[in-house]
Backbone:
């Protein structure tokens, strides 16, 4: 059994914020806004998954990620399926996920060049508690005024198709080549499978569970790491205390106690619940 409290890595982004979220120190007013906080595993090994908080004040780029095969064909370790649990959103906040109607790659390319791609996409209103799974290939954009907990394959390959004129690099040819041109179809979600267990994602790249307060004995198979993400509350796992806003990786057999009021996510690679 091993429980490791992860260090955080803050990433400044043009669409980030100066007022973050309980448990996260705000950047000083004269510093650049922080858009992402990543939880980093110690050492050099690149784990399968990456957990991030996202804090937005403007729309992110319209973007797409390659899948495993497309990434590996480009010499990259893996693709990037990702999913978002909305923790907070302003009343008019939206997320774009896929085109509203089927579109051919040439039309998508032209729309990315002249900015009309914004209107091609399906912008959905979002509120706290909403959940979206975006498989690799899904053209997407997270909107303004949103706090998100993102669980993703551990990849930083983002192909930007459109960036609202911000002076950042675009990756039009790569992006169009991996874009799914059909409307988004929601990913199957098993949901509540026991009184104290909800499965938000069960494959193909990872499993994501949501738990409340209580005591659990977990046994992760040999070689499998689990990421425990306390969204609210606090507790102890294998003698390591955790609080909302932190992240603990687990290996082997672990005993977990989460106090009343806790809201926990638990992610691990694979396509089947343990
Ligand atoms: O390219 P920008 O706009 O900075 O957005 C990059 C960010 O996009 C989000 O949708 C997620 O995929 C994040 O993991 C990623 O870091």
Residues:
């Amino acid at each position: 059994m091993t429980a490791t409290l992860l260090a955080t890595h803050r990433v400044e982004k043009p669409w980030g914020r100066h007022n973050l979220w309980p448990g996260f120190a705000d950047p000083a007013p004269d510093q650049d806004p922080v858009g992402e906080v990543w939880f980093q595993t110690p050492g050099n090994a690149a784990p399968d998954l990456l957990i991030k908080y996202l804090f937005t004040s403007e729309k992110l780029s319209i973007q797409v990620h390659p899948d495993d095969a497309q990434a590996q064909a480009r010499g990259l370790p893996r693709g990037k399926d990702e999913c978002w649990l909305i923790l907070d959103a302003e009343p008019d906040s939206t997320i774009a996920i896929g085109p509203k109607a089927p579109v051919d790659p040439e039309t998508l390319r032209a729309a990315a060049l002249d900015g009309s791609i914004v209107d091609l996409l399906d912008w959905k209103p979002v509120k706290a508690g909403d959940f979206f799974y975006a498989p690799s290939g899904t053209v997407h954009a997270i909107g303004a005024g949103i706090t998100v907990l993102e669980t993703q394959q551990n990849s930083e390959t983002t192909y930007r198709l459109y960036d609202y004129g911000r002076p950042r690099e675009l990756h039009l040819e790569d992006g169009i080549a991996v874009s799914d041109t059909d409307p988004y179809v929601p990913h199957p979600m098993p949901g509540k499978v026991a009184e104290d267990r909800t499965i938000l994602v069960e494959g193909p790249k990872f499993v994501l569970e949501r738990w409340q307060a209580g005591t659990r004995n977990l046994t992760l198979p040999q070689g499998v790491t689990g990421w425990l993400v306390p969204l609210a509350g606090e507790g102890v796992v294998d003698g390591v205390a955790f609080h909302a806003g932190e992240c603990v990786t687990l290996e082997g057999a672990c005993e977990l106690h989460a106090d009343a009021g806790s809201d926990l996510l638990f992610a691990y690679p694979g396509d089947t619940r343990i």
